[in-house]
Structures are given as C-alpha cells and as structure tokens.
C-alpha cells in the first residue's frame, strides 16, 4: 500500500496532541483526549508515546517466517503495555493489510473508511460512552484497555483507498464530501505537483475538514449528532485533524511512501 499523511493543528505545534504511524503494513492514528487539560494534563504526551510504542511493536512482533504479523490488536496491546509512567489518555485506531484483508482495532472516536471506485464501501464503528466522550486508553483507573477495542476485518482489492483519521476529520466531513474530493483528485494532477495521489488526497481532505471546522454556520456530522442528543451545536467542530490515506497496490504486501506536514492554526 502506498500512503500519504498530513496533520493540521488548531493549537501551536509544540502542543500537538495527535500522532500517527505510517509503517510498512500498518497505519495508525492516536488523538490525546483534550478533557484531561482541565486537570493540567497534556494528553499529547500519552498519544505520542503510544504511537511510538506502536511503531516499535510493528517491528518487534514477527511470525515464524520472520515477517511482521500485522495484528492490530496485538500491536495495540504491546504498545499500551509499554506506555507507562505517562499521564493523560488517547483514542487509537490501527489498521494492517495483508493478503487482501484489512484488519483494524479501534478505541474511541478515531476511525477509517474504505473507498472503492470513488465510493465508500466500509466505515468503521466508533466508541463513545456518551456524546463527545470517547473511549480512551490510559493509565488512569477510569480509562479503557486495549481489550475494549472494536476489532474489524474488511476484504479489500487493489486500488481501494483507506482513509484513516481522527475525530477532527470524521466530525467535520460528510462521506459524500470526501467522495467528491477523491473524484476530483486525479493522479496526473498529483504527479505534476511532485506528490503521490495519496499525499495529495490526504492534504486536500485534511484542508477541507479544517475549513469546515471554522465554518460557524455550516452543516457537518457533529451538528447532526448533537441534534440527536438534544443539543444545538452550530457549525464546524474546531479540533486537531490528522488524515492518513493509503492505497492498496498489491494483496500480499504493503509499500509505503511518506509525506508529513504540520501547520498551526488559531483557536
């Protein structure tokens, strides 16, 4: 799988609380839960260490043939076990591809979608205890553990697109808006700009989500979800946004190209 990724941050880059992994078979995102800031805790530290340990687990966990096992549940469990001595909490979504099957483990309100021929054919489930209160991994007694993760398997085909993102993406962008971006982002255009189509898609999807988050009167999934809960949130949800886009290029291995960008935007 080829991949491109981008992070936008509504806070200063030094307080960025999301991180991602783009590594051989495996893609992942973590999003530090901002509610802990009320207790003076920066959950970004936990999210960063969790993803660093996830990347280490991808390398360490190998099958009898010496190749990475690509098991998101085990990767997340190993990473969680090694993320000690850090306060805060984080959501996490890890996906791995092998032999035409995409496997995923998701804790909280990050997630992924699979697009085929420009149309969404699968969207992962998210976990919330109540509106805008996601499941979250952490070392505190009130936090969840990796065995709480929703586990998923999706059969994929060559050229399927995997769009992985934090809630800053999922709360601001409707599926049909992402489909429109995919339809408009041609390979030739991406190549002219010196980027792969995956890099171009990740940037355009993230930027669209960012501008929608600043729209004080626009419609978005978060607005509709708030209405179902009897709340009346108006406009986009200002949040950090992480997007990783991967494309299935063969059904027995993954190939990754990485482009990372980060920008700081005002509250």
Automatic annotation (TrEMBL):
The keyword DNA damage does not apply. It is an enzyme of class 3 (hydrolase). Residues 9-248 form the PPM-type phosphatase domain. Belongs to the PP2C family. SMART domains: PP2C_SIG, PP2Cc. This is Protein phosphatase. It catalyses: O-phospho-L-seryl-[protein] + H2O = L-seryl-[protein] + phosphate; O-phospho-L-threonyl-[protein] + H2O = L-threonyl-[protein] + phosphate. It comes from the Eukaryota. Keywords: Hydrolase, Magnesium, Manganese, Metal-binding, Protein phosphatase. InterPro entries: PPM-type-like_dom_sf, PPM-type_phosphatase-like_dom, PPTC7.
């Amino acid at each position: 799988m080829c991949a491109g990724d981008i992070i936008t941050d509504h806070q200063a880059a030094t307080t960025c609380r999301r991180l991602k992994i783009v590594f051989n078979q495996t893609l992942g995102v973590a999003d530090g839960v901002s509610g802990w800031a009320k207790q003076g805790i920066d959950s970004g530290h936990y999210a960063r260490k969790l993803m660093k340990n996830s990347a280490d687990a991808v390398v360490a966990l190998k099958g009898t043939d010496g190749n990475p096992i690509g098991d998101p549940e085990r990767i997340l469990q190993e990473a969680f076990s090694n993320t000690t001595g850090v306060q805060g909490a984080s959501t996490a979504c890890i996906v791995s591809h092998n032999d035409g099957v995409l496997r995923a483990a998701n804790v909280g309100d990050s997630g992924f979608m699979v697009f085929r021929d420009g149309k969404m054919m699968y969207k992962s489930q998210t976990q919330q205890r109540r509106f805008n209160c996601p499941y979250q991994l952490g070392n505190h007694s009130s936090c969840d553990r990796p065995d709480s993760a929703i586990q998923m398997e999706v059969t994929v085909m060559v050229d399927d697109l995997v769009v992985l993102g934090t809630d800053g993406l999922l709360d601001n962008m409707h599926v049909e808006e992402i489909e429109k971006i995919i339809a408009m982002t041609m390979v030739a255009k991406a190549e002219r700009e010196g980027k792969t189509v995956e890099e171009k898609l990740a940037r355009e999807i993230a930027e669209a989500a960012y501008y929608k988050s600043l729209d004080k009167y626009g419609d978005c999934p978060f607005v509709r979800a708030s209405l179902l809960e009897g709340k009346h949130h108006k406009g986009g949800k200002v949040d950090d946004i992480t997007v990783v886009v991967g494309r299935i290029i063969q059904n027995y291995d993954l190939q990754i190209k990485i482009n990372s960008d980060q920008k700081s935007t005002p509250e």
